[in-house]
Design brief:
Elements lengths: L4 E4 L9 H7 L6 E4 L12 E4 L11 E4 L9 H6 L3 E3 L6 H17 L1 H9 L18 E5 L3 H12 L3 E5 L12 E2 L4 H5 L4 E4 L13 H6 L5 E4 L8 H9 L5 E4 L19 E3 L10 H17 L10
Parallel strand pairs: 1-2, 1-3, 3-4, 4-5, 6-7, 6-9, 7-8, 9-10, 10-11, 11-12
The protein binds NADPH dihydro-nicotinamide-adenine-dinucleotide phosphate.
């Protein structure tokens, strides 16, 4: 693949200013430009770094997604057009791990209640049996990739026992039992926290369905940092409303932004975050490292980092 010109699509501004990435890559032996109306991807760019997909990118040889998930990219069309797709998996484990640890601690220590009461100048202590500590509780992490690793490390650090789910049934450090997807209902059944951290694929779409939610404990919380479609949202809302599970912390939703009309906004035991669980001011540096190494590899005739099959 030829690589002399690299475009940065303005859509990356969801995560960082495009100019900051351009400047971080300014020493590369390729012309790196921020795309705008005047300079579109069809103007003979060899590669593009982007958040969003655009048909124009089919004219390039390489698309790098600044996210880990590539569910929004038409993989068949890209391979027909001989466009290599790479992603940013591997850089989110620390931030997502800390976000999940934050949700877990908020529920146990009732921090979400305190913030909500504070807004109303309401001095209200929890009931004697409301607060708890997480050491010795069990979590089940569905997806043990780079997100899963960061989550397992934080949760075991807090003293939780952790089980995991993935297709490859090999042992994983820090994980007591590794289950396969066909055992999902068993895997979640004794966890206080069930954490979704899988890519969105045909296999994982709706994988946390009504049956899996029903298999959860009544005092369990569901945490979704994967993609909204991985969880059947309607079943989740129904389960929380009826007390079948205790609550949820959700960073991702079937529809984003979460519509104002969603019942999730008003539920006491639900924490809503606006798809920002991986945000950190270092995000741009992490993406720059991946792109830098890919540029080196491509120009040496090698395969770029994180090629999506
Ligand atoms: P990885 O590719 O590193 O890991 C994916 C994991 O999921 C692997 O352990 C894989 O194991 C497992 N997996 C894949 N398919 C299944 C399945 N059908 N059932 C059970 N496990 C499965 O990806 P990342 O950890 O980097 O990212 C995961 C996803 O998280 C991303 O695709 C993205 O959608 C989302 N994400 C969300 C962010 C946010 O801001 N909230 C930030 C970053 C990522 P195996 O192959 O053995 O099944």
């Amino acid at each position: 693949m030829r690589l002399d010109t690299l475009g940065i699509d303005p859509s990356v501004s969801t995560l960082f200013p495009p100019e900051v990435l351009r400047d971080a890559l300014s020493d590369l032996p390729v012309e790196t430009v921020v795309l705008d109306e005047a300079r579109s991807a069809t103007d003979s760019l060899d590669g593009v770094v982007t958040f969003a997909y655009d048909e124009r990118f089919l004219d390039t040889g390489w698309i790098h997604s600044v996210q880990a998930g590539v569910d929004r990219f038409p993989r068949d069309r890209l391979s027909e057009a001989n466009v290599v797709l790479t992603n940013s998996t591997g850089i989110h484990g620390d931030a997502i791990g800390e976000t999940v640890a934050g949700y877990v601690l908020a529920f146990a220590r009732r921090l979400h209640d305190h913030v909500s009461n504070q807004r109303r100048a309401n001095w209200s202590q929890p009931e004697w049996n409301e607060a708890w500590t997480v050491a010795g509780e069990r979590a089940c992490v569905v997806g043990l990739g780079s997100l899963g690793r960061g989550i397992v490390d934080r949760l075991t650090g807090l003293g939780l026992d952790v089980d995991g789910v993935r297709r490859t049934p090999t042992p994983e450090p820090g994980v007591d039992r590794v289950y396969t997807p066909s055992e999902l209902e068993t895997a979640v059944s004794d966890a206080r926290f069930v954490v979704a951290a899988v890519p969105l694929t045909d296999e994982t779409s709706g994988i946390i369905d009504r049956a899996v939610i029903s298999a959860m404990r009544e005092d369990a919380y569901l945490i979704n940092v994967a993609r909204g479609e991985v969880v059947e949202q309607e079943s989740l809302v129904a389960a929380i409303e009826s007390g079948d599970i205790a609550g949820a912390a959700l960073d991702v939703f079937e529809t984003e932004p979460l519509p104002e009309s969603s019942p999730l906004w008003d539920m006491n035991e639900v924490i809503v975050s606006p798809h920002c669980g991986a945000f950190t001011h270092e995000y741009v540096d992490h993406v720059a490292s991946i792109v830098r190494e890919s540029v080196r590899r491509v120009r040496a005739g090698e395969t770029p980092v994180n090629t999506v099959p």
